[in-house]
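User: I'm new to structure prediction. If I give you an amino acid sequence, what do you actually give back? Let's try with this one:
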Amino acid sequence: MRSEVEVQSWHGLDEVPQDWGRSVVTIGVFDGVHLGHQRMVTRTVGMAGELGLPAVAVTFDPHPEEVVRPGHQPPRLTTTPRRVDLLFSLGVDAVCVLPFTLEFSRMTPDEFVQTALVDRLHAAGVVVGENFRFGHKAAGDLETLRTLGEKYDFTAEGVPLVSDGEAISSTRIRERLSIGDVAGAAALLGRPHRVEGVVVRGHQRGRALGFPTANVESPQQTAIPAEGVYAGWLECFQSPSPYEGERWPAAISIGTNPTFDGVERTVEAYALDRDDLDLYGAHVAVDFGERLRDTLRFDSIEALIEQMHQDTARARAFTS
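Assistant: Good question. You get back a string of structure tokens that encode the predicted 3D arrangement of the chain. For your 320 residues, that looks like this:
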């Protein structure tokens, strides 16, 4: 439907156009938009094409766990704008970000379906993951949705969140990242894991050592890989700087800089062979490709510099 329907992004149901017609809807938190999520969205777009209707992805912000279990919310694999962009890249015609509030969480399954899917999105078909739960205290499941579909005239279909026979979940991806297995996380995501943030001023030790790094300050609750040194990429965007849109191979360090008795955990990325970049204040993305080694404490600055040369050589080989 892309050729007939203008791509649209809505924050809340009130932004859905009053004259919005019938559509095919997929629902989920979609944190990470991993390969399992991609199967759901692809099926939604396919069904929409079969019916000649637009495809809509419904997601939530903040993460429902932040509301129903404060203090227990999982680290986020993607920012909300990134999640929306990834959903659009899969071919949906509209993305609706529903504000997840305590009041919203108390809706019964029937109330949620009638309010979101029937009254505003006029769903003709709904696609969810096979383990989908919804409504107050997660009372609704796929069978509930199918029963409500009979009541409100839409079909409901569950898609297994698997790839090559392997179950995929955002939780599994976070587990991979927590042990530094960024390659394993990428295999489940279908692309490198990304950490976004603003470049802030640090201690500038890297510049003094000949390896100027971008110190990336990411939003709270960002899923950051385990401490260590990685090969990947650094990309600049949402910045008035002349580097906007540029992407460089990078060596990435996560840790507290134990050689200098550091205590604050940082994410620092060195754009390989670039000592001329001024990225302070720029919004950047760090994409993780491969783990190179653990974070180490060195007995001398000379030993640290030698190791940094080895790290950048390995990062260059991986990203070339």
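You can read the tokens as a compact description of the fold. Here is one thing that stands out. The longest helix spans residues 301-319.
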